[in-house]
Write a structure and sequence with these properties.
This protein is of the alpha+beta class and 122 residues long. The protein contains 3 helices and 5 strands. The structure holds FE2/S2 (inorganic) cluster.
Amino acid sequence: MATVTFTGLNMPKDMTIYAVAGDTGTLLALAKKHDIPIPFQCQDGECGSCLVKVSYLDGKAPMAIDLAEKEKVTLSVNGKLNRNLLEAAENAHRPPPYRLACQFIVRDETILVEFSGEPGVE
Ligand code: FES
């Protein structure tokens, strides 16, 4: 089971979602299903509106590290993915701190998702 805690400046309080198998779509889909107000527009990894910061809390090796090419480009353009972070993700399986909620697939792990409520601002 995935345990996802959302914390946003535009939320009255943090919300923790326990997602079972079958609920493991994108982070944005999970947020929308539970009325978590993560901003979004394209839902296709191109606009950067759904930028979030993801922290891994369970001490296990993080999953969902592989970034699609368009997520790499969008994060880079927004200054959230530099060469060092990309190399760490691709070569050392260390996930970058910033992700696009519409591209991040929820896995069986415990994560904290932070966002500001402003499109493209974590
Ligand atoms: Fe556009 Fe996620 S909604 S990149």
